[in-house]
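A quick aside before the break. I want you to see a complete sequence-to-structure record at least once, exactly as it would be stored in a machine-readable document. Don't worry about memorizing anything.
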Amino acid sequence: MAPMASMAHQAPLTPSVAFLARRAATALAAVLVLGAAAAPVAYADSADSPSMSPKKLPDGLYGSKDPQYDGVWRQSLALLAQDTVGVRPAASAVKWLAGQQCADGSFTAFRAEPGKPCDAKTLRDTNPTAAAVQALAALGGHGDAVKKAVSWLKSVQNDDGGWSSMAGSASDANSTSVVIGALAAAGEKPQSVTSKKGGKTPYDGLLTFQLGCAAKGDGRGAFAFQLKGAAPNADATAAAATGARGKGFVVEPAGKGADTPVKPLNCKDGDKEGKGDKKAGADDPAQAAEAGDGYLVAQLDKNGQQLLSAMPGAKEQPDVGNTADAVVALAAGAHGAAAAKPLKWLEKNSADWAKQSGPAAYAQLVLVAHATGTDPRSFGGTDLVAALNATGPEPAAAAKQDTKDADGSKDGGGLGVVWVIGIGLAIGAGIGFLLSSRKKSRL
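That is the input. The structure line, written in tokens, reads:
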């Protein structure tokens, strides 16, 4: 997720912002190749989400930057990461997140006035809704809120079994993956959640985005963000390789010494779709995940154990957030050796990115550490837990030293309004933004 090309080199991106930028870039690229295909846009202004000065941030919110576009997302990741390492979040932080929910169960990016009912102008979004479900389910005590959110997610499932960011738009790999994670976290069986028309499961929808043996170049096994046959996308592949295994943000470590070899897509001569050996993932989520992991490993090896990102026309640059997602995906497949290499890269290169990016970045790295069995309190010389705690209200139960960052600062965790406007302009130049379709109810 990157704004305009010129902005991309000025500051690191938070995971939530990076997620938006990569999605925006992918959607724009798809439009340029496929024509005026409707695709989710990062975020549009909403009457329910006015810009907010850092001086007016609500009590309990993590980060010090404008939450307009990523408030629920970064809060959910922060709370989930704290819970994962045994830190009990502040009651005000949990209350803030729960209070963002609309009466129908959905969440939007941020509601400045949570006491005001959501209406047709509220841009309900499957991504923050699914993230909030994972956090609230993990924390416990929010069964009704989780149940309502899951019911809303089911109500906006597309006929192909997948989800888009905004209801009414075409499904995409990222949104479908994060919803699968939410369903699993809520105790649902994703394979049993079927579309009203066609009876398609989330896995049916997700696997349509995988590129098989007919893909050109090194794209075999990769997932496209949207539309089968589109360009391979590392961000979508990392999300889908985790989602296809029925896992969400929290991936339990496979155990010390666990190392299952990665099995890239193996195409037989004359079998352009890869169906002969059933390794294209056409009907098997586990095999689809393996093929996706194979693509990720190839990209990591090619680029020095880091993934790269770039807006159209911009120079490629390291994508710390996407590399972190890839490590989690590999860990989810018990690919210990394959995950160890990019993990080392993250330990050496993520500190500045996380410090400047804030709570969602620290949370994402904590989840990487958890998935790989690494100590989050000594991650490349950084105490990720202490750094995360320092970006929000003091936890209800945490060691005193864990609430202070190295420099005593409270880091930010949002994105600049100008940056997001850049995304909107970029997308708007390539597709017609169907605002009317979003009145019903994205990250």
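Two observations worth writing down. The longest helix spans residues 15-34. The mean pLDDT is 80. We'll return to this after the break.
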